[in-house]
Amino acid sequence: MQLDDHAEDLASDLGVDKAEVKDDLQSLLEYNVPVEEAKASIRRKHGGDGGSSATPTTRSLADVTPDDGSVTTTVRVLTKGTRSIRYQGEDRVIREGEFADDTGRISYTAWEEFDFEPGDSITVGNANVREWEGNPELNLGTNTTVAAAGEAVETPYEVGGDRDLIDLEPGDRGRTVEVTVVDLERRTIDGRDGETEILSGVVADESARLPLTDWDPHAEVEAGSSVRLSDVYVREYRGVPQVNVTEYSTVERLDRTVEAPDTAPRLDIGEAVDAGGLFDVELVGNVIQVRDGSGLIERCPDCGRVVQNGQCRSHGDVEGDDDLRVKAILDDGTGTVTAVLGTDLTAEVYGGGIEDAKTAARDAMDKEVVADTIRDRIVGREYRVRGSLSVDEYGANLDAEEFVESADDPAARARELLAGVAR
Ligand SMILES: [Zn+2]
């Protein structure tokens, strides 16, 4: 349904002016309040009971679709995370996590305090269904009831939020991780309540390294310490999952050291891309192409974006600053990523700095000679690349910190050479 239809619905139900209802609805939706909850809130404001006219249907989780207005379902609580959001100018504590039964699992958001914990089997009555990124999600609001289920709900899914860092995904709530803090700084930010101190750093376990923010600095979170972080949430930050510790999280110092290898985990490219973004990873593959926009480029002095034909996408006509960059497509047979090399790494593979590149471009009267030189050097060769992988609408990009010609497997190299000779 469109905003207009929802407003029409409400206005006729409540017998009030549609324009007024629509304004209220719009401002609630801007705060990411789900539409059914927003409508209930407006009904209450106009003296209604906030009830939805639809009768809930009893459903197994596999059968819940966004078309069900509201459902009643009997489930096992897998996880429960706590977070506060600002809602109509007030901070409101919400709970989020996953329910499951023997047919599937579903994410939920509870807008009220309900009495359930991970592991409990419960019947959730009259929960609203909304769609989030193509999947149905349950919203538990003022009209929802929660009661203990008659018997334990069987489910193939694991109860609890314990995860390895490599398994965390943006959108995860109520997760628990055991990590070593490898890097940490105290920062002052301009938050929603003015200047706030936060901790910002990197955590690691045996499986991966990820950026961390502690929004409510805990004394136990300090560089070098091994800690158990319970009830953390994960969001995407610059294309990779970030661990977020809040005032609702529990931080306990561990009496063991969580091993955090210095090296980044080595993954197949396909596997890494499927993981959906990794903060620090090592990939090995052949450079199959150096993309346009490599070599000698110009950046906007205001925002750093690449300038094309003297135009910045945000700042229009600008006098660009010269820079060096490589965008190299890396392929290992399981998938491809674009490795992005900054100024220094590009200078290394080019064999000269910005001034050398400008001289070469002037001599040839063509900037493209710089990219061509780089192409000649690296296309067809195998590289080991370490960096931060982001996967989003711009594709899979690996922001390279190391870019080294691979000498990993001399036997394979010899076989390749022999195959070349025999050809
Ligand atoms: Zn700009």
From TrEMBL:
One MF annotation (Gene Ontology) recorded for this entry: DNA binding
Keyword DNA-binding assigned: yes
Transmembrane segments: none
NCBIfam families recorded: PRK07218.1
Residues covered by region (Disordered): 40-68
Protein name, per record: Single-stranded DNA binding protein
This protein's UniProt keywords: DNA-binding
